[in-house]
Design goal:
Layout: E1 12-19, H1 22-32, H2 36-39, H3 41-45, H4 56-72, E2 77-88, E3 97-109, E4 116-126, E5 132-143
Antiparallel strand pairs: 1-3, 2-5, 3-4, 4-5
């Protein structure tokens, strides 16, 4: 179990990579964001994106998958009070390989939940060329390590 004390302020954690497939873009788009450029490559050709691109919300899900698999799974997390900033900087296309990173910006003791603190974090997904495709600022509440 990882507790708030296990996350070092200022440290950047590598979250691994995620390869995007055409099928998952279309499946997510059809189910949650059925805009032409998320569901049909041909229709996407006539858009600003000139092809099929992932929904920004799908891109958030890709980041979350990497975050949970690398850091959040098995952690003493109590939930999240939210996201302050979210930016989609570049379209995500089929075949893209995205790399996730998460930096711990700060830690604030909870005034209402004794034994918990909130981690302030900045996350980023970059493409294979190192260009950012998404950035976000997020918060999560973690328990402190129990005292024996």
């Amino acid at each position: 179990m990882r507790y708030v004390e296990d996350y070092e302020q200022g440290r950047t954690y590598e979250l691994g990579t995620y390869k995007v497939t055409e099928q998952e873009i279309v499946d997510f788009g059809r189910r949650f964001d059925p805009q032409p450029y998320h569901v049909d490559a041909e229709l996407g050709e006539d858009s600003l994106f000139q092809g099929l691109v992932a929904s920004g919300w799908h891109t958030c899900g890709m980041f979350m998958r990497l975050y949970v698999d690398t850091l959040l799974g098995g952690a003493a997390v109590e939930g999240s009070p939210g996201v302050d900033e979210l930016r989609w900087l570049k379209p995500v296309r089929p075949g893209d390989v995205l790399t996730g990173r998460l930096t711990i910006v700060g830690v604030t003791a909870s005034m209402t939940r004794p034994g918990c603190s909130t981690l302030h974090k900045r996350g980023e997904l970059t493409d294979a060329q190192g260009q950012p495709v998404m950035r976000l600022t997020l918060y999560s509440m973690f328990r402190h390590r129990p005292r024996d």
